[in-house]
Design goal:
By secondary structure, this protein is mainly alpha-helical. The protein is built from eleven helices and no strands. The chain is elongated, with a radius of gyration of 19 Å. The N and C termini lie far apart (about 40 Å).
């Protein structure tokens, strides 16, 4: 692993643990056992490190999603596995990191998305096609329209203002929204699988 990648991975852990604002270049240098000068030889500033961290996390997320779908018996099992991974991801993330991202760093994400360096996580097309092929989602499903609707479901369920007075975690709200929408597009086989995995992963 080269020094640039070492910096990215160490920064990712520290940002998620302590928040972005709390992590300094000095702290990062000590953690890595290198000089601060070495960090600046690879990155202009902390903002550039954060952008690289977000790109790296996006790639890892995509790989994890693909691995989960490829190793699952059906699309519903894959979705519930991803719910569990997402819940664990948010549980292990410092509230400070989420707050820092929401307050100060959304512009970085927007610019990376515009460049195509962080893909939008709103494409459920392949998941829907697989579900239709497996007889889990109804065959008359309009894939494009359903894909757009699922994006809106995701957007609404992660709206912190809409759910600011609830004790539920965002991952739980998202899970409930998503599952209820899937029930509406599922065949009897799909509903049976949703009920099975819902009980299995809540046990």
């Amino acid at each position: 692993m080269n020094i640039r990648q070492r910096i990215i991975e160490a920064a990712a852990v520290m940002f998620r643990t302590y928040g972005i604002r709390a992590v300094t270049m000095d702290m990062l240098a000590v953690q890595l056992g290198i000089s601060k000068r070495t960090i600046y030889e690879n990155f202009e500033d902390k903002e550039e490190i954060l952008a690289a961290v977000l790109q790296w996390m996006s790639i890892r997320q995509k790989e994890l999603i693909e691995k989960t779908f490829n190793s699952s018996d059906n699309v519903i099992e894959a979705i519930f596995k991803l719910f569990e991974l997402m819940h664990e991801h948010f549980r292990n993330m410092s509230p400070a990191f989420r707050l820092d991202m929401e307050k100060s760093h959304q512009e970085i994400i927007r610019k990376l998305q515009e460049k195509g360096e962080i893909p939008y996580r709103n494409d459920n097309t392949e998941m829907l096609k697989r579900g239709v092929k497996e007889g889990i989602f109804r065959k008359e499903l309009n894939i494009d329209m359903t894909n757009k609707c699922l994006f809106e479901v995701m957007r609404m369920s992660t709206d912190k203002e809409a759910f600011k007075n609830t004790d539920m975690e965002r991952s739980e709200i998202f899970r409930d929204f998503y599952i209820n929408y899937l029930r509406g597009i599922s065949t009897p086989k799909g509903l049976e699988l949703i009920n099975f995995y819902n009980k299995k992963y809540q046990a």
